[in-house]
Design goal:
Blueprint: E1 4-7, E2 10-13, E3 18-24, E4 34-39, E5 46-51, E6 58-60, E7 68-73, E8 78-83, E9 92-98, E10 115-120
Parallel strand pairs: 2-10
Antiparallel strand pairs: 1-3, 3-8, 4-5, 4-9, 5-6, 7-8, 9-10
Amino acid sequence: QVQLVESGGGLVQAGGSLRLSCTASGRTLNKYSMGWFRQAPGKEREFVALVRSSGDTTFYADSVKGRFTISRDNVKNTVYLQMNSLKPEDTAVYYCNIVNFLTTRPSQDYWGQGTQVTVSS
């Protein structure tokens, strides 16, 4: 299993921006498609965005399309999620994981601790 660490969350007003980061300790992420997921209180974890290993292909959930941008820096072994025009409904714990780019489902059962994003109205 690849252990992942998310960071960059926080409290922001509606319309604001945050950038999340995801890295792995001791393992390279370069060969994996990587995704961001989120889980709001009382709801199931849902797919947000993915980027393929080369970084040239991305895919987004309809709810974040046009507002969020996923990217990666394979030199820094880090995956990012730039979140703009945030809405209260984006409030959730955000997680990254290895992802199957065909199904958008996580490729491993391991989840990090995530990073909390709270958007106030």
